[in-house]
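Our working data are protein records whose layout never changes between entries. An example says more than a description, so a record of this kind follows.
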Amino acid sequence: MPTAKCALCLRVSELQKSHLIPQGIYRAIQEPGHVVRNPVLVTAATTVETSEQVSDFLLCKSCETRFQQCGEDWVMKNGPRRNGRFPLRDALRKSSTGRTIATGELYTAPFDGGFDLKKLMYFAASIFWRSSVHHWNGFEHLMTRAKLPDTLEEGLRLHLLGKKEFSHDLVLLLSITASRPLPHFTHPGPMTRAGGVSAEVAGFAFMIPGIQFRMFHIFPEQMRGGSAAIAPHPVLLTDRIENEIHARGEGMRETSQIVGTLAKKRIPR
């Protein structure tokens, strides 16, 4: 392990092998004993089963532990299980503030005690910051780097150290799947661009099973009211996440060629 400056605390220390998406998330979506054990990555060109993870030396041991204790451990403990349970979603549904909107059920604070929005926000901020602050060389086929303006990137760093509130110059949209998450389907990868063709909207997104995080650094003012980081802290429970995954897969079905070990397995397209 190299000795260098930790990207978070800025102290020179022995760096750990850090993952953009926590290693435990990858373990959670593996299927031991299944014909397709590892996640499936789908692009317009290829569909491949892969255990590849985006990782590099980035943080000291103390900062790795901070990330685990402040968000990662809770998210992994409360994410979807193979038996169909999804503690995080179950707790959200127990909240008394839900109301039906066109895209699903919208919940706002106060939430049920089992739904820890603070830890979800910290988890999201840590991954968006990791993507922005570091060049994850060699993993361009898996992700789009979420490079934020320097002032916002530094604000996230201070937030992760507990020295600053989450910036209101960022909009964080948080969606929880209402249907059963698709465990294998990892496309479009750990980080992608979010937003339309308009220059008024720019941001990034990533997904883990059951949860979608989108963060915008350029946005029209009306989007601010949808941010989970701003009172009343809206969180959307929706079928849209899995529907979008299906739609992307269908859109690439004609051109995406099954390759590698997956090509030898009898899996329905």
About this structure: The chain has a mean pLDDT of 88.
